[in-house]
Amino acid sequence: MSGNTLGTLFTVTTAGESHGPALVAIVDGCPPGLPLSSEDLQRDLDRRKPGTSRHTTQRQEADEVEILSGVFEGVTTGCPIGLLIRNTDQKSKDYSAIKDLFRPAHADYTYHHKYGLRDYRGGGRSSARETAMRVAAGAIAKKYLAAQGIQVRGYMSQLGPIEIPFKSWDGVNDNAFFSPDPDKIPELEAYMDQLRRDQDSVGAKITVVADGVPPGLGEPIFDRLDAELAYALMSINAVKGVEIGAGFASVAQRGTEHRDELTPEGFVSNQAGGVLGGISSGQPIVASLALKPTSSITTPGRSIDVNGESVDVITKGRHDPCVGIRATPIAEAMMALVLMDHLLRHRSQNADVKVTTPVLGQL
Amino acid sequence: MSGNTLGTLFTVTTAGESHGPALVAIVDGCPPGLPLSSEDLQRDLDRRKPGTSRHTTQRQEADEVEILSGVFEGVTTGCPIGLLIRNTDQKSKDYSAIKDLFRPAHADYTYHHKYGLRDYRGGGRSSARETAMRVAAGAIAKKYLAAQGIQVRGYMSQLGPIEIPFKSWDGVNDNAFFSPDPDKIPELEAYMDQLRRDQDSVGAKITVVADGVPPGLGEPIFDRLDAELAYALMSINAVKGVEIGAGFASVAQRGTEHRDELTPEGFVSNQAGGVLGGISSGQPIVASLALKPTSSITTPGRSIDVNGESVDVITKGRHDPCVGIRATPIAEAMMALVLMDHLLRHRSQNADVKVTTPVLGQL
Amino acid sequence: MSGNTLGTLFTVTTAGESHGPALVAIVDGCPPGLPLSSEDLQRDLDRRKPGTSRHTTQRQEADEVEILSGVFEGVTTGCPIGLLIRNTDQKSKDYSAIKDLFRPAHADYTYHHKYGLRDYRGGGRSSARETAMRVAAGAIAKKYLAAQGIQVRGYMSQLGPIEIPFKSWDGVNDNAFFSPDPDKIPELEAYMDQLRRDQDSVGAKITVVADGVPPGLGEPIFDRLDAELAYALMSINAVKGVEIGAGFASVAQRGTEHRDELTPEGFVSNQAGGVLGGISSGQPIVASLALKPTSSITTPGRSIDVNGESVDVITKGRHDPCVGIRATPIAEAMMALVLMDHLLRHRSQNADVKVTTPVLGQL
Amino acid sequence: MSGNTLGTLFTVTTAGESHGPALVAIVDGCPPGLPLSSEDLQRDLDRRKPGTSRHTTQRQEADEVEILSGVFEGVTTGCPIGLLIRNTDQKSKDYSAIKDLFRPAHADYTYHHKYGLRDYRGGGRSSARETAMRVAAGAIAKKYLAAQGIQVRGYMSQLGPIEIPFKSWDGVNDNAFFSPDPDKIPELEAYMDQLRRDQDSVGAKITVVADGVPPGLGEPIFDRLDAELAYALMSINAVKGVEIGAGFASVAQRGTEHRDELTPEGFVSNQAGGVLGGISSGQPIVASLALKPTSSITTPGRSIDVNGESVDVITKGRHDPCVGIRATPIAEAMMALVLMDHLLRHRSQNADVKVTTPVLGQL
């Protein structure tokens, strides 16, 4: 299949460009009987929405979603759910400055070589604007998962050089950074303000956690839960790395340190990040992703034009100095979509399985 | 589809357990006319084969592959290629010691909960033995890619705490570690010898590079080349993290540092690892993966049995003290399979595209 | 994947119910550079549109399609094409009469058992209204295929007991029945008028032909071209049978009669319908489909309600006395979508194939 | 995906040519805990096996299947099941006579144009020999379905001009034709004997019935149960047509005649063939398929060679005068595979659905 569909049983297909008339998505495979309204989707859309603080782009988008199908009398019918978000703030600015050149670290050059032409307005399809539909679709998965006792939450674990150790979920959604430590916020604010003065951008690290996931999700040996999470999280704009549990720290670990021992009371640690052999263990699923610094910065850079001639690129327009700041709801959505798909996949083959062995939690 | 098929157009489906009669694979979608013999596959199989040095498991497997179909008069026919590897060294040892308990950090617990029963002999399907077929299938992709001027090579970039900076491709295949720096080998040998005395295991980091990849491979916005690489590499046993290009280092980078500027002579750097917007840029594709320490170690550990009762686990048998040592050919195979699949996918939709803009290499 | 996506590389995903706010579709995998406007889609939509003659339902739907994405400056970009059709004529009639009972030969009973609830307004998702999006998507495929010299056309080959032998393509689109023989039209008109007086409905047979299809399309041994055509055509509402070439007539044929002999000038016959071994031969692709009589008729019928109690069903509302009358554009669309998908699939694997053997036409 | 995999959740991937070393298949997605041995597969393989009567090819193949994986201690583990059948009777005859020409009505011409080369020995991949693996895989589905109370059975409903009305299931497997009427057998024998004297071949019609299928199987609007059956049955060699229920007879039917009315005691008829709106109704699933006459006949025919020159084709070797005679077990297997896949698909999305409305049988 072409590249704009995610999932096997719970599938999300999206379309739409940054400055086209609208974004659209079709969510197929949602179980019937789930109470659903556009408000359920709007909540997460508003968390991702630009222009909510001085640390994100000032582009104004209401991101109002309309449910076109698949919901009847307030509940899902089991038929595909059509979603529509009209683009409202498409500045009719002149793009002639960039239409024939390639902005460094953007997809301009690769889209040009792949398709021979491209919608250069605001990055077209390659714009992070597209992630609005991921969040909308993810909200459907989140609501279904919540009814199964599964909660997917994320936070910023690092902004540029500043590490943000997890303190508590309280207040994560009450600050512009999704920081799990309120005391860190002034430092983050100061860093961002300096960054703007430097006319530069910076990367970030996001951590997503799913609690309440039952053991058994994941389809080895290729469609492992961790492999599908890596795929889904890496598919987010600007992501350059994905870790499950200890991730790259496990390179320097000893086996005696990494292995999560089991006791009748539960697992004694969670280096695995909740996945063993590609299947969920019943522990929290923990994944982290690295986002690169925003490519659009006002400091001029060298590049070439479509004729291969040398040019200087000066990026104007409205951009996030750190794309990672708005990435938390997107990362949550992607994890929720993967878990939803695998919940359905696991059910299909193993509906008859009965296990008497107690399910372990984490100590 | 169920989880044992990889790819969309160039598909690899595998089956087989560690101690079953055989491993089998079907490679579908290989273009016709490719000269192919079992020797082409054997070369990489021998690189992955156990028992070739004192630093890997002493299990003896010839890993002789038989081509069952899809090749006629020495060339591929375009029909599916069946591959068979008989398991020869299945020690008829007594598994009663582990059949009813879960080895920490293994898939025993999760397979038990997912399927309700499991083939406990040597880990059954969850054993790294399965990766032999990945290597065999990957060798087919490698041979086709090579004819297109695409070369996929890997090396060990870190063993436990020891970083191994890349020096040269020469000799990478001449040492047990796939070290790109021959001078490092004594240090690696000494570390491994001490590790065995400690009855412990350790993790490793592998880096894979593809040279000669044309721009255009990758199908946004989900089936990005980097997303599919993350999926394929994370699906390898024991992998806990995947990076593209700068990876997690990009978190602390500034935009001015990360963005790879373009000049008529080429890209000035490759922080992106050869992928922009999910599409290959023409630069080398660079991916790294983190492998956790081997779970099977002779130091006893705490666990539970199928009744939830506390037990002590003493792992016996023949195991790799560092699974990463044999992982390089596997990682190469997975990258080759993803590139092969995307070469075919890119062709299908964009066969008519003509681009006059020169393709940039890397400075 | 869930059931609302068609195709492997050129995919069409649709959503929308008969009386919901809108129908929506996402067409993914369309090659870039194809000139496309909503007018290109409207032409076929108008051919399918209800209310254009007294022999079809009087429901009034403009079926105006909006292109939401994937087209920039008049040509396709290679990114997914979003399509939207608002439902305008949703009679706010009272459905309480049918909400709790099952209309015979409709999907009411099966949707109820599958999903536990259903959108009963006008059949919801099971309504033929959904086929509007098939026609819109098919028009994109038709336009691309036409540029390759491939033309997909259909006609009505039988209405109830009246067989309509093919005379000529001229005028097929100038009559309400898509009759290939203008002289038959009065007989068809008279039959339909009597049918309405009888308060009954009738079946029909449609034949679709693709000219100019090159040899090589189709992916044995499962995804044969004829198998995929059977799937796509059988997926149209009310279709109960599909034939390729001689179809069921081949049961009574002798081998000497059925086999299409080859001469340097071309094939001497086309019993095969243009497909040999599941691959196109270069001859015209010929497929026929049987459509059952409309289930909604005003003659009362026996049924049960959701409690299993006996009820009498009297269907009201606006219905086609013969669904086959409007089916020709739908059948053309489905064949075009399958050919388009297989054109891309064939390319991907066999781009390097060179054949010197001349391509045969048909004598 | 490439064309040699069938199914979405219960997938069957096959490889192997008529005269290659072996046929191989991987069945993925089989639920764990199903008792399975090679004997379960051998039963149906023997029903399809050639050389069991004078009315089929005299090629001798033991068709002995080996289970390579996915079964442990007599039951399935949920891991993929590898199947192997060695080809034993590959006559080392000289194929030079046909290697450079195209046998009429065979896949020679189309494989040549698609792939540029082909394994010409006995038709290579396009040979019906491949169907042995369909039967083996289908036997696994049949055994699982049987445990759910679902029984899939087929019979020959027409041989050339001779219609065979269904009398009873008794004895269907006791005659070479799978005739449901023992009294017809002498007539069938006489017809076949004359056919051989005429050096000709003939077509046949097979009907397959599934009893005990619960309502709800099928995934509209594309992956309808009837659409997937049409795909699977049309993918069998030599099949030119597929019908569900009344099939092409419904063209001339009136709505009052076709609609299957419902009563509290059950459906009063089954014109629909057990599928409404693409979903099983709980009635028997009834499908018929048309098989063309064998293409290989000893009566010479006109054709061309790879240079486009005119040639005469005289087919030698061992062939079935009516491929339909051995097709019944194959058709059963394909229906079983589709039902199995849809049973898993239905479960996944609708596991929570509770319906109190009684399930109707057929009167």
TrEMBL record, chains A, B, C, D:
Q: Which SUPFAM superfamilies did the record assign?
A: Chorismate synthase, AroC
Question: Does the keyword Flavoprotein feature in the UniProt annotation?
Answer: yes
Q: Where is the composition biased (Basic and acidic residues)?
A: 40-49
Q: Where is this region: Disordered?
A: 36-61
Task: Please report which protein family the annotation says this sequence is part of.
Answer: Belongs to the chorismate synthase family.
Q: What does this protein do?
A: This reaction introduces a second double bond into the aromatic ring system.
User: What protein name does the entry list?
Assistant: Chorismate synthase
Query: What organism does the record attribute this protein to?
Result: Pseudomonas abyssi
